[in-house]
Each structure stands twice: as C-alpha cells, then as structure tokens.
Design goal:
By secondary structure, this protein is an alpha+beta fold. It is built from 6 helices and 5 strands. The longest helix has 13 residues, at 53-65. The protein starts with 5 loop residues before the first helix and ends in a 14-residue tail after the last helix. Mean pLDDT is 86; it is low at 133-143. It comes from Marinobacter nitratireducens.
C-alpha cells in the first residue's frame, strides 16, 4: 500500500470542463461521469479552477429565480483548487482526507491536468488492499 501512487488510482478518461461552458452542460457532464466535481482548464490543460455540484446547485437556483439565463462555469468555479502530483502516495492522500476537504483532486504533471482522483477511488483501493495503513501514534500514549 505504501508504494501505491496517485497515478495508479486516478481516472484519466474524464474530459475536463473548459472555460465558457454553460452550467447546464457542466451538470450533464458531472451526472454522466458520476463525479461531484471537475477541474476547469484552458486550451493547454492548465487548471484554472474547479466546479462542484454544490456550485452548480446554488448558481442554477439563483439564475432560475431571477430568470437570468444559463450561467457559465467561469462565473461559479473555485479559482484556487487544490491539485496533487501523480507521484503522491495514496496513503498520504488518504490520511489527509477529512471533513471540508475536496472530494475530487485534479492530478497535475508539469503544470498540465492528466487526470483526477476521487475519494471513491481511494476508498475502493483501501478496501481492496485491506488494512495496510499504520495507525498514527498519539503523544502521551502508554501504548
């Protein structure tokens, strides 16, 4: 388990969202791919942002209420997404997951998006390999 890298569990078959994409199309892409969010990239696959289901829900509710038409992803995306390296150890990523942390991480190599890794993929791998993660040692513990 320690030697397993993000590149071993990432998904690289999902097409990222491009700037200027209408939000209704973003929602269709999220639902089709069964993911809670996707990176937003430029024409060179540089990650510019991240859009989540929650971003879409809020924006579509507001635009529907005000009859503003279909917003675009640029209006709602988070512009400082957390990205990870394909070389990062899965166990390190798993130990950093928690409440308030992203559910989907863009995987970037040499500044370009090469895939995504989801909590679901991490959970699946942990379940497949068993209990290979060492429990953390607590300060002051007699054990």
């Amino acid at each position: 388990m320690r030697s397993l890298k993000v590149s071993d569990v990432m998904w690289n078959h999902i097409e990222p969202i491009r700037c200027g994409t209408p939000l209704t199309r973003v929602v269709k892409t999220l639902l089709h791919n069964h993911v809670t969010g996707l990176p937003v990239v430029d024409d060179h696959r540089h990650v510019l942002g991240f859009v989540s289901e929650q971003d879409c829900i809020h924006s579509l509710l507001v635009s529907s209420y005000h009859c503003e038409g279909d917003p675009i992803v640029d209006d709602v995306m988070f512009r400082e997404p957390v990205t990870i390296s394909p070389e990062m150890a899965v166990v390190d990523l798993a130990q950093n997951l928690g409440a308030g942390k992203p559910k989907v991480y863009p995987v970037v190599d040499h500044g370009k998006l090469i895939g995504i890794v989801t909590r679901t993929a991490i959970l699946s791998e942990l379940a497949r390999t068993g209990c290979g993660i060492e429990a953390p040692k607590y300060a002051g513990s007699a054990i």
